[in-house]
Amino acid sequence: MLTETDVIGLPEPTGIGLIAPFDFALDRELWRWLPDHVSLHTTRLPYLPEPVTVQLASALGNPHGVRRATRDVLTPEPVAVAYACTSGSFVDGAAGEAALVTAMLAAGAPAAVTTSGALVSALEELQVRRLAVVTPYVDGVTNRLLAYLAEFGITTSASFGLGLLADIWKISYADVVRAVTGMDLTGADALFVSCTNVPTYDLIAPLEQHLGIPVLTANQVTMWAALRAANVTDVAAPGALFAGRSQDFAAA
User: Fold this and answer.
1) What is the 3-state secondary structure (H, E, C) of 170-223?
2) Coil, strand, or helix at residue 34?
3) Phi/psi of residue 165, each to 5°?
4) Is residue 204 a contact partner of residue 224, using CB atoms and an 8 Å limit?
5) What distance lies between CA 9 and its chain's CA centroid?
6) What is the C-alpha separation between 36 and 234, in angstroms, rounded?
7) Which end of the chain is more exposed for a tag (fewer CB within 10 A), N or C?
8) Along the chain (252 residues), what's the average pLDDT of each consecutive run of 10 residues?
9) Which one, of 246, 250, 234, 251, lies nearest residue 36 by Cα?
10) What is the DSSP letter of 168?
11) CATH number of domain containing 188
12) How much is the pLDDT for 248?
């Protein structure tokens, strides 16, 4: 018979709230970052019939909408809430990202992170100063990302945008690999693949091995920051960020 002694030491169930854009299609990828005792409580922002431009990113990153969405995921009592949209959290710069975090906390989130804020934290963790960037966006949106990074002293060593105005979730692993291998990564401390609607989970480890630098992706940094905010440690996940291996690359 199972007794209380048998379950002592088992991790307690933990929840993370997730706010995603209306077109988010990679729920399964986000779950892959999580240990078995952590659940995602997900809500989506309202549908907006617009192409993926600066205008759409600004609408998705409206703090009032994100505050309402935060309230939608609080009933199951998550210990942290993540806003999982890269463009929506960098489009209005560092001040815009900070406003989103403030709105989430004001709505009652015990802790709050955004994808772009998580990216900056990850770059600090790995001591990255020069970053190569791949995005699915048109130039106007990509340029907002580069300007956001510059606010934190991050130099963009190379960048490439796929120029998509819709259906970003249809990007394949092969599309990502072609974009990365077509770039000049000379001098880059790390590579970042932007957008939470771009699949990357199974590419991170092989790309790091091939390129010899850390590879960061939107979903990776989001879940890394959310798990840290939830005080969940020792997560087995691909990449230098989760393994804390930046110095291995430096010594290689």
Assistant:
1) HCCHHHHHHHHHCCCCCCCCEEEECCCCCCCHHHHHHHHHHHCCCEEEHHHHHH
2) coil
3) -105, -5
4) no
5) 31
6) 12
7) N
8) 58 91 96 95 96 97 98 96 98 98 98 98 97 98 98 98 97 97 95 98 97 97 97 90 71 48
9) 234
10) G
11) 3.40.50.12500
12) 63
| Closest by Cα among 50, 87, 22 to 165 | 50
Print the domain residue range for 8. Answer: 4-245
The verdict on residue 192 lying in a domain is: yes
What number of CA atoms fall less than 13 Å from residue 148's CA on the CB side?
27
Determine the pLDDT at residue 2: 60
**Which residues are paired to 113 by β-bridges?**
82
In a domain, 251, yes or no: no
Q: How many domains does the chain have?
A: 1
Separation of alpha carbons 199 and 217, rounded Å: 9
Tokens of residue 195, six digits: 């957008």
- 252 part of a folded domain: no
Q: CA distances (Å), 57 to each of 107, 149, 157, in order? A: 21, 16, 24
In a domain, 119, yes or no: yes
DSSP codes, 41-100: EEEEPPP--S-SSHHHHHHHT-HHHHHHHHHHT-TT--SEEEE--HHHHHTTHHHHHHHH
Q: Which residue has the tokens 């945008």?
A: 161
Q: Is 186 left (phi over 0), alpha (psi -120 to 50) or beta?
A: beta
pTM: 0.93
Residue 11: closest CA among 109, 79, 104:
79
Q: What type of residue sits at position 179?
A: A
